[in-house]
Amino acid sequence: MVWTALATVAALVGGCSLLWPPAPAPTAAPAATPLPATATPRPTVPPPTETPAPTSTLTPIPTPTPLVLAVGGRARVVLPEGRLNVRADPGTAADLLGRLAPGVVVSIVDGPARRNDLVWWKVDDGAGLVGWVAEGDGTTRWLEPLPLEPTPTPVALGLGVRARVQTEGEARLSLRAEPGTGSTLVARLKAGTEVTVLEGPVQVDGYTWWKVQTAEGQIGWAAEGDATTRWLVPLP
Length: 236
Prior knowledge:
This protein is mainly beta. Among the domains are: 74-146, SH3 type barrels (Roll); 162-234, SH3 type barrels. 6% of the residues lie in helices and 34% in strands. The protein is built from one helix and 14 strands. The strands form four sheets. The chain has a five-stranded antiparallel sheet with strand order 6-5-4-1-7, with no helix packed on it. A five-stranded antiparallel sheet has the order 13-12-11-8-14, with no helix packed on it. A hairpin with a 2-residue loop joins strand 4 and strand 5 (118-124). It starts with a helix and ends with a strand.
C-alpha cells in the first residue's frame, strides 16, 4: 500500500508540472553614477603686468676746464696785501717799473720764465705799464687767470650801418659830392667822426666809395680805405 501511494504521488508529480522553480530575485539595476559637471573652458586672462615707470636719464654736467695763465690770455691781480711789483725783466733783482693794485686786469704778452724760484709773466695793464710780474710764491696766487673775452663778430659796411672815421694823426677823410678822387670836395672829416651809410658801394679810381651822412647833416661820398688801412670802420 505504501509503495502504491508513493507511485501514485510520483505519477502525479511527473505528469503535471504544477510547481515551477522559484523565480530568481530581480537584480536591482545599478544606480546611475552622475557625471561630474564639466565647466565650459574660458580663455585665461593673464594678470595685468605693471608697467615700470620710465627711469629718467641724468645728463652728466660737463666739468669746466680749469683756467690757466697763458700768452694771449687775461689775468687779475689778486695779491692779498700791498701791490704787485712790475719789473723790467724776470727776477727780483730786475728794475722796478711800477706796481699793480689788487683787482687790476692785465693781458699776458710773454712767459712763463723761471727766476728766483718764481714763475714770471710779462703783462700789459692797458695803461702803458708793461713788464714782468711773479705768478705767486708757491702757496699764494698773485695772478688769477680770467676767461677770454668773446671775439666780436666783425660788422661789414652796408646801408644803414653806422661807421667811425679812423685816420692817423691830423689826417682827415675827404667827403666828396660824387664817387671819385676828382669830384667836388664837400668836407674833411676828422678822426672819430661818426657817419651813417646811405648808399653804396661804388668802385671808382681803385677805391670803394660809400655815401654817408654826418650827425650835422653833411652828405657826401667817402672812400672806405686803401690796400692797407681802413678809413671807415663799422660800429658794432
